[in-house]
Design brief:
With about 550 residues, the protein is of the alpha/beta class. The protein is about 45% helix and about 15% strand. The site of ligand ME8 has 20 residues, from β1, α1, α9 and β12.
Length: about 550
Amino acid sequence: MPSPAPYYITTPIYYVNDRPHIGHCYTTTVADAAARAMRLIRGESRSTFLLTGTDEHADKVVTSAAAHNSTPQAWADKHADAFRAAFTSLNCGFDDFIRTTEPRHKDKVPGYISALLKTGDIYKGVYTGWYDAGQEEYLTETAAREANFKSPINGKPLVQRTEDCYFFKLGAYQERLLAHINANPHFIQPDARRQEVLGRLRQTLNDIPVSRPVTDDPATQWGVRMPGDPANRVYVWIDALFNYYTTVDTPERKHFWPAAVHLIGKDILWFHAVIWPALLMALNFPLPKMIFGHGWWVSEGQKMSKSLGNFIDLERMHAYADAFSLDGLRWYLLTQGPLSGQDADFSHAKFIEVYNADLANGIGNCASRVSNMIVKYFDGVVPTPGNAAALPDYDFKAICAKASVEYVAALDRFDIACAFNQASEIIRKVDGYINVTAPFKLAKTVEANPTAKQELAAILYTCAEAVRVASVLMAPAMPQKMAALWSTWNCTPGADTKLADLAAFGGPCALKPGSTVAKGDALFMRADPAAPIPGTIPAPSAPTV
Ligand code: ME8
């Protein structure tokens, strides 16, 4: 059988001077769930590749390191480890973690820049701008005008300064970029982001500076040098964008390019949807298939800020995982996150509502209802499927088939929430079926009516098999909880089994009559909306008189 086409998904590489928070963890968790789902759909793990990592050549790394009596490299090492550990703690299974200070990245960047110098796409020119000598930085024309051409820091006049600089001929690619975006509606997603880029591309694109000078200031000595010109270094953003390519620019991984999806936040859309594709066009490299720019997480309806105390940092996320399980947290992020383009709210009340509805009262309760009845009425032995009364609204073979078709289609357009909601829909159907068929009532009649036992068997088999299918679809979001369910139900899928087989109701991976189902612990404990918010210090109780 031919192997499936490679699926390469990337996250942004994160700045090492920040501590991991919900934003970074969200993007990486979405990429992880998408990669797991792709592996499931293909029934083949090796053709999917998830890359995350850290962006380490920013000037602020040098400043932060100095402020902490550290070297830039030691500072970067420490923070890169923190990101890696954060993602691992959230069960994100990345295939590689690239750091821009690693030789396998930084040694390759000059090669691409040299190629662009050779074609003339990168050329040496002169940069003129408003310079704040006290701060040693340029201000944009707008920022300079707004500051009345005075330093916003020390009030001294800004000076017009000119220096040698390398430029990339971005303007030369404007027409080709427009044509590509117009011909490929999925290239930039969601649609609002695509419109945003198309709008900006109606104005003339200028060539952009891609180097920064190296001076006596140690901050300017950090980074990748321009090939053949050590007095200049590659601008950190250009260096960073190349990570997606350097990681797979090896004989073993070359087939992963072009990437299927660059998943990013909306803040860095322009770099990914315009500058990066133009660089690739100039190098004659194929373009990624999709740039997906998600929205922001806000917290309790407000922009996250450390001073407001509403920041969802890693500690707060761990506190939620401790209280509601890691998979409970992942489910909330994945189904309620800002993927569609709108910003999303991390609100405690909403979290509890979704957790209780989808998990504690959803799959958790449904699975234990069904296994409890199999234990009670069939001694825990999966009964033989038979002809349960045909109810047109509850044709589970058709319901599960439709759910998996929609699951695959939703993942293709990167609508992760819609994909996972297909599974919740199956669970709602099972709950409805139990209410309509009332197996607990039927069980009371089996002694007087022998055919009732067969009917009971058929109903419970149907419920259990449908829950199994839902659990398969949910597994990329909640790998640990679904593995726990499979273990009590003795239906752990073999490695590399295809979704088409796994999610077929009554198909090759169906529950086997005669196998055993144990009661098991509740998958998700019901959450009390009045309980203290995880990660917050409980208010002191009122003094007793
Ligand atoms: O921009 N909600 O790195 P960065 C959702 N190094 N996502 C958020 C978020 C929020 N409130 N805050 C951050 C950089 N993010 C560059 C990228 S790529 C070649 C270089 C996520 O550490 C979101 O994915 O500032 C955003 O794009 C990323 O963190 C920015 O991470």
